[in-house]
Amino acid sequence: MAKFSAARNKSRRFLVQALYQAQMAEVEFSELISLFQEDHNMKRADLTFFREVIEGINDNYSSLVNSIEEIGHRPFSESDPIERGILLIGSFELNYKGDIPYKVTINECVELAKYFGASGSFKYINSVLDSLSKTLRPGEYAAR
What we know:
The chain has a single domain, classed as Orthogonal Bundle (N-utilizing Substance Protein B Homolog, Chain A). Helices cover 78% and strands 0% of the residues. Helix 1 crosses helix 3, helix 2 packs across helix 3 and helix 5 (102-116) packs antiparallel against helix 6 (121-136). It is mainly α.
């Protein structure tokens, strides 16, 4: 299990970097997987998970952004690129990866924000994803 979670953790770090790159270089998400794999050593990452999240964000971008904006206290476009990437990852996992407990998703995204984000951005990430989990996973949230 530890090896599996370490590979997912590594994938999430690459996802933040890839989503940042996509925003800064205006690269289509569909092109991102091959471009990113060419430039990075991803041996220890869960490549299946990486692809699934990138493709899922690409396919569901508008609905993910809408759900974030409904919960967030500012327009999605006003968040910095790192926050936007982390929120997309978290929102995708909460919406479409029911096999990952919501607490794991929130914790992983908070840690990503602490590592990559601006000082204090982890608080915003935590607030938005916690609110999303109440809406998207009410049974799981209530059972905590």
